[in-house]
């Protein structure tokens, strides 16, 4: 794969956790703390409205960003020939009245969905009113058709279509349930097993809104029935739905139960050699484990190992799952702080994306199919259709992940991480403005737009973090203001994104010498996150400790005791390195300080954290060689200066330069000392301007900036 400007890997297109809506088209967001990138979407059942001859799966039950289709039934051949244009058509007079009504209804639905994106942009204007008028007219046509005497199978299918539209487009859940219950009894009498299971699949999702326990109980019964009838494709579908329900933000939320359900799917798929289903279930299990943060990395790696056990030949035609597998592998490395490992893996991802961009594997809706082996030789294969992200969305996610992999080496590689994120940002902005082709429901269009806007916010967030790392505070403040504006566009949702934005604001406040505000914001972060041992909570407390030490040593010591246990047990080496660094810089025994510094420097080097490395080198020089005249003291000061300069950090470049100049002066090399002090003026001016940006001009300090003032 080429770099962003190389001309090939250019189109755009996570991450992300479930947003709580039952009408989503499968786009959600799943943000994580700064060391944990947004993850790619998880598989779930397709909710796109099929063409008229095909009975559409009713509305969606999402599992984050993937949609998993239920097996598809078709309209009877007697009326599968009609053409459904983009506007309602007038059927031939020779058609039966009920077929005329059904055809009219489908015409109205397709006309509405053709304007779905336009209505979503209108946000309640005339276009949205026209959209809902078309949907209501189509529903009335189906209601009229149900008043006719229909063949049992056709009536069941019309009831299914009617309930599906009600569920996806309206809030009339009771009416949809009533239509489905009548249809299920009709299908039961006529022995229309596929239609019955399709209705029960939809009914379970509708009931989830009002009676979640009853929904799960009915679903368990459907799983048992499908196993008894040996209809494995329906067993897979119902179990995937059960996993979705258990991952919903509801009283039924049970991650371990969802993992157990996926493991049952994997077991059945392994026995039947359904490689695509086995891979999908393993990847979904990986996603659930990854959502637990660094503590879930071991479980995620075990599930990922099962997914990696499949040979590439086994997943031909399912390249999307191969791309998801590679993305999750990168996620696990990033969340553990193994950036060198992630860089190797991201190169593989680039090759996969470049290859897939040329292959004919993408559909405009992001759909693909997984084949299920027949029960007996000679029987046709069953198919489950899945709907993931589009090609453009995948490429944006690829840019985002690539930027995260270059996070620690961004400065060393002349801003390559920033370039990836900037290209991803340009691509997603283009999608938000221009990608309005295709047909979709209004809810689907709105959720797709929301997902992309959420990803845009995450890209902007991490780009601003990169600016903070290289102390471009003017750029960081501008980026933060733009991020706030982008976030205001999003509808209210339960996610970690607002807390991440607060954390970024705290970092900028601390970096620009607004320490009181920074303390308040850090406290807001670690008191509002759900888990006090989460990475975001821990890193906020560590930053607070640094500010509090010269102000309130008792408060700083208390915070240190609250983070000690989770930091020592975390699987994230970056978090452990930060803890060791803060622990090393507290006052204590010299031997313990040396041990902590040694461990912190070792972890910083292991995780390629250049910023933490030059901070530790500067502290070591100040702690152990202040006032000392020796070759080792000069080497220590020079190493601190050189590393900070390579990191383009004006503050620590100034500190290293000052210590190096003092060291030269103590050795009697006044000329070199004066020369170094002259070189220090540029970073000094930048540091003073930054630290006094919120101070009135008449209160600016006239003295220099020393190490104690900085720490």
TrEMBL record:
<dbReference type="GO" id="GO:0007064">
    <property type="term" value="P:mitotic sister chromatid cohesion"/>
</dbReference>
<feature type="compositionally biased region" description="Low complexity">
    <location>
        <begin position="80"/>
        <end position="94"/>
    </location>
</feature>
<keyword id="KW-0131">Cell cycle</keyword>
<keyword id="KW-0159">Chromosome partition</keyword>
<feature type="compositionally biased region" description="Polar residues">
    <location>
        <begin position="43"/>
        <end position="52"/>
    </location>
</feature>
<keyword id="KW-0498">Mitosis</keyword>
<keyword id="KW-0539">Nucleus</keyword>
<dbReference type="InterPro" id="IPR019440">
    <property type="entry name" value="MAU2"/>
</dbReference>
<feature type="compositionally biased region" description="Low complexity">
    <location>
        <begin position="10"/>
        <end position="30"/>
    </location>
</feature>
<protein>
    <submittedName>
        <fullName>Cohesin loading factor</fullName>
    </submittedName>
</protein>
<feature type="region of interest" description="Disordered">
    <location>
        <begin position="1"/>
        <end position="62"/>
    </location>
</feature>
<feature type="region of interest" description="Disordered">
    <location>
        <begin position="74"/>
        <end position="98"/>
    </location>
</feature>
<dbReference type="Pfam" id="PF10345">
    <property type="entry name" value="Cohesin_load"/>
</dbReference>
<dbReference type="GO" id="GO:0007059">
    <property type="term" value="P:chromosome segregation"/>
</dbReference>
<comment type="similarity">
    <text>Belongs to the SCC4/mau-2 family.</text>
</comment>
<dbReference type="GO" id="GO:0051301">
    <property type="term" value="P:cell division"/>
</dbReference>
<dbReference type="GO" id="GO:0005634">
    <property type="term" value="C:nucleus"/>
</dbReference>
<keyword id="KW-0132">Cell division</keyword>
């Amino acid at each position: 794969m080429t770099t962003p400007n190389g001309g090939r890997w250019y189109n755009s297109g996570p991450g992300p956790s479930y947003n709580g809506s039952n009408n989503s088209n499968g786009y959600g967001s799943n943000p994580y703390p700064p060391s944990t990138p947004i993850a790619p979407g998880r598989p779930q059942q397709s909710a796109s409205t099929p063409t008229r001859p095909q009975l559409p799966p009713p509305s969606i039950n999402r599992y984050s960003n993937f949609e998993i289709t239920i097996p598809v039934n078709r309209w009877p051949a007697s009326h599968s020939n009609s053409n459904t244009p983009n506007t309602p058509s007038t059927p031939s007079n020779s058609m039966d009245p009920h077929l005329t009504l059904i055809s009219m209804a489908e015409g109205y639905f397709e006309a509405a969905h053709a304007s779905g994106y336009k209505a979503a942009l209108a946000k309640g204007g005339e276009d949205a009113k026209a959209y809902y008028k078309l949907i209501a007219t189509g529903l009335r046509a189906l209601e009229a058709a149900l008043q006719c005497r229909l063949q049992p199978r056709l009536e069941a299918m019309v009831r299914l279509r009617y309930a599906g539209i009600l569920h996806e487009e309206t809030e009339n859940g009771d009416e949809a349930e009533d239509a489905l219950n009548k249809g299920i009894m009709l299908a039961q009498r006529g022995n229309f097993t596929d239609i019955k299971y399709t209705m029960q699949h939809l009914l379970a999702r509708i009931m989830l809104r009002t009676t979640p326990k009853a929904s799960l109980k009915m679903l368990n019964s459907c799983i048992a029935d499908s196993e008894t009838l040996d209809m494995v494709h329906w067993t897979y579908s119902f179990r995937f739905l059960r996993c979705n329900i258990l991952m919903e933000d509801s009283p039924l939320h049970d991650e371990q139960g969802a993992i157990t359900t996926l493991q049952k799917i994997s077991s059945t798929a392994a026995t039947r050699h359904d490689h695509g289903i086995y891979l999908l279930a393993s990847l979904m299990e990986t996603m659930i484990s990854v959502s637990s943060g660094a503590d879930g990395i071991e479980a995620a790696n075990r599930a990922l190992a099962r997914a990696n056990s499949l040979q590439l030949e086994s997943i031909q035609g399912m390249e999307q799952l191969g791309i998801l597998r590679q993305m999750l592998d990168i996620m696990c490395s990033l969340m553990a702080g193994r950036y060198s490992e992630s860089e190797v893996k991201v190169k593989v991802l680039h090759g996969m994306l470049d290859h897939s961009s040329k292959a004919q594997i993408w559909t405009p809706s992001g759909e693909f199919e997984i084949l299920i082996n027949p029960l007996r030789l000679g029987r046709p294969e069953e198919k489950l259709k899945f709907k993931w992200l589009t090609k453009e969305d995948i490429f944006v996610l690829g840019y985002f992940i690539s930027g995260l992999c270059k996070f620690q080496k961004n400065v060393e590689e002349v801003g390559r991480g920033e370039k990836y994120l900037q290209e991803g940002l340009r691509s997603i902005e283009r999608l938000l403005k221009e990608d309005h082709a295709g047909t979709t429901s209004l809810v689907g269009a709105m959720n797709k737009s929301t997902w992309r806007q959420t990803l845009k916010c995450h890209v902007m967030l991490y780009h601003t973090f990169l600016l903070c790392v290289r102390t471009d505070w003017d750029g960081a403040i501008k980026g933060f203001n733009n991020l706030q504006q982008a976030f205001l566009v999003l509808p209210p949702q339960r996610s970690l994104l607002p807390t991440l934005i607060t954390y970024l604001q705290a970092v900028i406040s601390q970096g620009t010498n607004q320490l009181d505000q920074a303390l308040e914001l850090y406290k807001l972060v670690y008191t509002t996150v759900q888990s006090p041992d989460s990475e975001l909570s821990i890193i906020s407390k560590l930053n607070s400790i640094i500010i509090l030490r010269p102000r309130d040593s008792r408060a700083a010591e208390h915070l240190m005791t609250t983070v000690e246990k989770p930091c020592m047990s975390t699987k994230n080496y970056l978090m452990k390195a930060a803890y060791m660094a803060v622990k090393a810089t507290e006052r204590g025994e010299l031997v313990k300080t040396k041990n902590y510094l040694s461990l912190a420097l070792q972890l910083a080097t292991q995780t390629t954290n250049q910023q933490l490395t030059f901070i530790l080198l500067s502290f070591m020089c100040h702690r152990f060689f202040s006032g000392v005249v020796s070759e080792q003291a000069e080497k220590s000061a020079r190493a601190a200066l050189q590393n900070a300069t390579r990191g383009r950090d004006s503050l620590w470049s100034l500190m290293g330069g000052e210590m190096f100049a003092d060291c030269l002066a103590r050795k009697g090399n006044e000329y070199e000392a004066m020369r170094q002090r002259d070189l220090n003026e540029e970073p000094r001016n930048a540091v003073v301007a930054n630290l006094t940006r919120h101070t009135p001009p008449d209160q600016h300090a006239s003295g220099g900036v020393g190490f104690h003032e900085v720490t």
